[in-house]
Automatic annotation (TrEMBL):
Entry keyword annotation includes Plastid: no
Family: Belongs to the enoyl-CoA hydratase/isomerase family.
Ranges in a coiled coil: none
Keywords annotated in UniProt: Isomerase
Source organism per UniProt: Micromonospora lupini str. Lupac 08
Molecular function via GO: isomerase activity
Signal peptide: none
Keyword rRNA-binding applies: no
Protein name in the entry: Enoyl-CoA hydratase/isomerase
Length: 285
């Protein structure tokens, strides 16, 4: 029998849905599967027909974490190089993307599986799912940038609690902490996430989505005056841009706007970290 692809995709209404497709091992990822996943994200980023991305798992689990093969790849002296080169893209690629990434967490997520979900911009969670960092219970550290990401999502004390204890968190607590934004019945998770992404694709300007996303992320490292100054500069650009003109005309015509498909129309291009820039910075460390 032909082995099923580890990653599958489908596109409808401007939304690219990426599925982790290893249900028989609860979508645990090895390096090859991670490489396919990041490649699918990069393809979606560069496809002008795609305006939003949804990520989900096949079966009853979103992602159980690292497969044994991935841990074997990392155990050697060249483990860091194997991971960074093997992925083919920055591990935090979803945050660098100009298009919104929505996680439809259809079941439990642990370790790197949880990190993949947290790297998304908005998260929908099945009401029966549980989340865990799991790292400390395996003698590991806070992997894949989770020690940087979690405090910004849930605060320092909550991040330390989740990372130090590696305890399992249910859906209600995950929403209360801010790990996820929506909790819905398991059978509705993907449909709800797809509908949300479809609304972004149909009703929001791609350039605006790109710039807003990067404003929020770069704002984590800016002072308030720097963030305000940047927003004023970008505001002036956007008021003069084609998307704003189309939005005003559509309101006058009482119709839905037909926004330009490009995401560089409001200055998004210069905000994005390129693969070459990432590699240059990585090689300096």
């Amino acid at each position: 029998m032909t082995e099923q692809p580890a990653i599958t995709t489908r596109t409808a209404g401007g939304v690219r849905t990426i599925l982790l497709n290893r249900a028989e091992r609860r979508n645990a990822v090895d390096l090859a599967m991670l490489r396919e996943y990041y490649a699918a994200l990069a393809v979606a980023e560069d496809d002008p027909a795609v305006r939003a991305v949804v990520v989900t798992g096949v079966g009853g689990t979103f992602c159980a974490g690292a497969a044994p093969e991935l841990l074997d790849d990392l155990s050697g002296t060249d483990g860091r190089a194997a991971l960074l080169e093997g992925l083919g893209h920055p591990p935090h690629l979803p945050l660098l993307m100009r298009k919104p990434v929505i996680a439809a967490i259809n079941g439990s997520a642990a370790g790197v599986g949880l990190v993949l979900a947290l790297l998304s911009d908005v998260r929908f969670l099945a009401e029966n799912a549980r989340l865990s960092t799991v790292f400390s219970r395996l003698g590991l550290i806070a992997e894949y940038g989770s020690a940087w990401l979690l405090p910004r999502l849930v605060g320092t004390a909550n991040a330390l609690d989740l990372l130090l204890s590696a305890r399992s968190v249910d859906a209600a607590e995950a929403q209360r902490l801010g790990l996820v934004q929506r909790v819905v019945p398991r059978d509705d998770v993907l449909a709800e996430a797809d509908a949300y992404a479809a609304t972004l694709a149909a009703e929001c300007a791609p350039g605006s989505l790109a710039v807003i996303k990067q404003q929020v992320l770069t704002g984590w490292e800016q002072s308030l005056p720097e963030a305000v100054d940047a927003s004023i500069r970008l505001m002036v650009e956007s008021v003069s841009g084609p998307a704003f003109a189309e939005a005003i005309q559509a309101r006058a015509d009482r119709r839905k706007p037909d926004f330009p498909s490009g995401v560089d129309t409001v200055g998004a291009g210069h905000l994005r970290v390129t693969q070459a820039e990432y590699r240059a910075k990585r090689d300096e460390t």
